[in-house]
Design goal:
There is one protein chain. It is built from five helices and no strands. With 98 residues, it is mostly helical.
Length: 98
């Protein structure tokens, strides 16, 4: 079953969520650019995932530290869903607090 983030309206997404959406679509360059657009912990977390996905473990570990997150030990698909589950509900809360 696809995650709701995969079909979410791009205009409603912050940089980290846009990066995850682009990663799910196979657009690594766009995902990397979106993850680098902000310097917050959520962006660093997604940035870590992207570097892990490309096989750059050393760089990924640097970004996990910046994010204040442990290095993920499961599969890349599990990590994508874990981050999406953590950040997407948070995003929905922000958009409903207007």
């Amino acid at each position: 079953m696809p995650h709701p983030l995969e079909t979410a309206d791009v205009a409603t997404l912050t940089g980290p969520l846009r990066a995850l959406q682009l990663a799910a679509q196979g657009n690594w360059d766009g995902a990397h650019e979106a993850a680098q657009a902000d310097e917050d912990r959520d962006s660093a977390w997604v940035h870590a995932y992207l570097h892990r996905r490309e096989g750059d473990q050393w760089n990924a570990e640097y970004w996990y530290r910046r994010a204040g997150q442990p290095v993920f030990r499961g599969s890349l698909d599990e990590e994508w869903r874990h981050i999406a589950d953590a950040l997407y509900p948070k995003e929905l809360k922000h958009s409903t607090q207007v």
